[in-house]
Design brief:
The protein has 244 residues and is of the alpha/beta class. The chain has helices at residues 51-64, 77-88, 117-129, 131-143, 149-161, 164-176, 203-212, 228-231, 233-243; strands at 2-4, 28-29, 70-75, 93-99, 190-197, 216-224. The protein has a domain at 2-104 and 178-243: Rossmann fold, CATH 3.40.50. A six-stranded parallel beta sheet has the order 2-1-3-4-5-6, with helices on both faces. Helix 3 (117-129) crosses helix 4 (131-143), helix 3 runs antiparallel to helix 6 (164-176) and helix 4 runs antiparallel to helix 5.
Length: 244
């Protein structure tokens, strides 16, 4: 079972979820290039100018570990990275768990992504101009759960640890990507975990992903915010166990 973290995070974000599956699966955790303990020298702007570069890394890890019919668990942007990896390496992943997925963050005709194009432009510009300020302002909003400020503080600190230049490019790629056409290519059973309130990926997005991925199951969590792996790990674990 491979766990992949979202933007601004690292593998530590799975510390409440991954151990629950160690008795039944070999668990694999890693940091995307630019995050956590990754080798910053491995960053190549051309390679990572699209999510396909990150998907290639997932496939490289899978081939190194000789993964077959494994379960991929991807949070936020890593949900789309996992979809791309599964399509490009048939047989490597037998099931997908997509936590807070969004194939496109920008609203489009007959599509609700949650943001206007101008909002995304301003978001990325703010991050480029003031990485620390962006982290302090946005992390608590993304995390939600204002009654538990320690969660927002943890995400803020995680954002601040990310290399600012790489974070700027990863944000641009993440928030401007359009992977809607890739959903229909998913050929394995998939679980979509959607929080009941999520400013980054609203319920309309989860429902869209469910409608467009064949053989998918949508579970609306009671959890709020965009990081249920931190805020409501027990609920995430239960939904995953019912699926796998």
């Amino acid at each position: 079972m491979m766990f992949a973290h979202g933007f601004g995070c690292d593998q530590n974000m799975w510390r409440y979820v991954a151990p629950a599956f160690e008795g039944d699966f070999k668990t694999v955790l890693f940091d995307h290039v630019g995050a956590g303990g990754s080798d910053l020298k491995a960053y190549d702007r051309a390679k990572y100018s699209s999510l396909s570069g990150y998907a290639d890394d997932v496939i490289e890890i899978g081939r190194e570990l000789v993964l077959e019919n494994a379960i991929f668990v991807g949070h936020s942007v890593s949900a789309m990275i996992g979809i791309l990896a599964a399509a490009n390496a048939p047989g490597m992943f037998g099931r997908l768990v997509l936590v807070g997925p969004s194939p496109r963050y920008i609203d489009d005709e007959n599509y609700v992504g949650g943001f206007k194009e101008q909002q995304i432009t301003e978001l990325v510009s703010f991050l480029s101009d003031n990485h620390m300020g962006w982290s302090a302002a946005m992390a608590p909003v993304i995390m939600g759960n204002p009654d538990r400020p320690e969660l927002g503080e943890e995400l803020t600190n995680s954002f601040c640890r990310t290399d600012p230049d790489i974070a700027k490019e990863f944000a641009r790629v993440t928030f401007n990507s359009d992977n809607r056409a890739d959903l229909a290519k998913v050929a394995v059973p998939s679980l979509i975990l959607q929080c009941s309130e999520d400013i980054i990926a609203p319920i309309e997005v989860g429902e869209y992903v469910h409608r467009h991925i064949p053989n998918s199951k949508l579970v609306i969590l009671q959890a709020t915010g965009h990081c249920p792996n931190l805020s409501a790990p027990e609920e995430v674990i239960k939904a995953m166990r019912d699926f796998v």
